[in-house]
Design brief:
By secondary structure, the protein is mainly α. Helices cover 62% and strands 0% of the residues. The protein has twelve helices and no strands. It has helices at 4-16, 26-33, 37-44, 47-70, 76-93, 95-102, 125-131, 137-146, 153-168, 178-183, 186-192, 204-219. The longest helix is centred in the first third of the chain and has 24 residues, at 47-70. Mean pLDDT is 81; it is low at 176-199 and 221-226.
Length: 226
């Protein structure tokens, strides 16, 4: 059965689908989770603490998914292609994760600031961890690569970085080259900032690139990326 903390985090994430973080009210979250406001404050300390916990959970859930995919049996090249596809799809559906992976936070999302230096430590151990602040994009790349077998960890980092490039600059809806997009003027900004529902899955062409490069990398005696 989910704990009160998990139910409150779920309520906060659901609220973000309908309104910006600045408009999310603690009283509403407590009511949605069917707990008292005192329980909410006991768990998170403040709305800022709740924001840190929400972001921390997104990072943890992401890395759990990475570990699960990398543990699946099969050729490393194909496993990493599947991982890249999963990262693109998950980032498209989860704005907080997308911000974590890219470092591009907007006003609708909770501000991922660590607790103030010298602040009283939270009573809840999970909150103390969250109050340290979220991992940076580079730290998440390194953490994902560390989940892979040492013999193809460098290939895992490559797959993650290819996926993130697809998240940052997804394909132009309807096709078209980068030059055509730039020449369109007003289309340019929209093409780089497409809404999640318009993002396509990682293309078969990119998947083939990952498989080809990783097949070479994981069978090379060097075991490191150039």
């Amino acid at each position: 059965m989910p704990t009160a903390r998990e139910v409150l985090l779920d309520a906060a994430l659901a609220a973000l689908a309908h309104r910006p973080w600045s408009a999310v009210r603690m009283a509403d979250l407590a009511a949605a989770a069917r707990v008292s406001r005192q329980t909410l404050y006991n768990e998170f300390g403040s709305k800022e603490g709740l924001a840190r916990a929400l972001v921390r959970r997104e990072a943890d859930t992401y890395l759990q998914g990475v570990r699960k995919l990398l543990a699946a049996p099969g050729p490393p090249a194909r496993t990493l292609a599947v991982l890249a596809e999963w990262i693109v799809a998950r980032a498209a559906a989860r704005p907080v994760l997308r911000a974590l992976l890219t470092g591009a936070w907007d006003a609708r999302l909770p501000a991922p600031r660590p607790a103030r230096p010298g602040a009283r430590p939270a009573a809840v151990p999970a909150q103390r961890r969250a109050d340290a602040g979220p991992p940076a994009p580079g730290e998440l790349v390194a953490a994902a690569a560390a989940c892979a077998d040492e013999s193809w960890a460098a290939g895992c980092e490559l797959a993650v970085r290819i996926a993130l490039s697809h998240v940052v600059a997804p394909p132009v809806p309807g096709g078209g080259t980068a030059g055509e997009v730039r020449s369109a003027g007003t289309r340019s900004a929209g093409a780089q900032c497409a809404e999640p529902e318009s993002w396509s899955p990682i293309t078969p062409a990119i998947t083939r690139v990952i498989e080809t490069i990783l097949r070479v990398e994981t069978t090379s005696p060097r075991k490191i990326m150039p």
